[in-house]
Description:
Layout: H1 2-7, H2 12-19, H3 42-54, H4 68-74, H5 77-82, H6 86-93, H7 102-106, H8 110-123, E1 130-139, E2 146-153, E3 158-160, H9 176-186
Antiparallel strand pairs: 1-2, 2-3
Amino acid sequence: MGGLLNYYNGSLYKLFADVYPEFQLRPWRFTVSSHNFGSDSRLRAVLVRDTEIALQLHDVGDWKRVSALDLLKAGVTGAVKAFGGLRPLLESVYPLEDWSELSKARRGQKHAQKRFSNLLRSLFPSTDFFEDYRHPALRYRQTQSPVELDVYFPQERVAFEFHGFQHYEQTFMNDHSIRKAKDAEKR
């Protein structure tokens, strides 16, 4: 088999793509692929669609909460790099979307919360709910600012609060004592 593989420059992807043209192979699924699939525009949408399925992304806006760790777990980090990075890849597949805030949004801690809401969506597919909902009737006593509920089911009048690490530890982004007081008031 060494001779045959040498003919395809050591690339199993090229060999299988040539032998089985009727299948839409994913070169990023091969451990070694000398095929420069980053230049193959037809594979961009396939990569995005595969990643959306793997990460359970239900709408285009969900991409703004995807972290580098999410891409690593989905096994697509190398493929995303081959297409020039996540932003250029998404711009080519979803050209009407504004991706200028993508890098800022991905730095946040909301991707775990998004996974939680995706789980709720899969458990309750026919029930409407809101994410990051600022309830008009609920206000913090001290500041009078609206209480933001991570997930809110209006018909059922039920809310879920997803507590990431920032609720338990001091971070550069928040004053831990203020966060603890707000969390206690939300309960």
